[in-house]
Here is the input.
Amino acid sequence: MVDMDLEFTPQDDLPIPFRVHECMLTEARAAFPREACGLLLGLPGRITHALPARNVHARPETHFEIDPQALIDAHRAARGGGLQVLGYYHSHPHGPPRPSAEDIRLAAGDGRIWAIVGEKRVELWEDVAGGFRAISYSLVNG
Ligand SMILES: [Zn+2]
Here is the structure.
């Protein structure tokens, strides 16, 4: 499978709809003390939806694994002309919203966005070759 150009630029300031931001915070609260996780969907360069998924990891208090079926379904929908899979989100119930050693191990370096919820805030990271890069965002309507 060839990924489309995700079209995030180094200067970023990515627009994130308020409702996407709120969804991630709400899901993180609801999953506590386990990690919440899900997908970030949208149009190239613009996240429009957070799609909650089951965390199927055997130790969800400290790890996450997005339900593989949710990933398959999302990629299939994208290929069929639906929203693109621009990234993922998960929560850190007991830590800051920065990539953990485990997150770094899991990173694919594929340019997707990882939103991490921790300490009641959301930080965005771009999964690029060589590691995660913090990216700035602005909350927008819509
Ligand atoms: Zn993590």
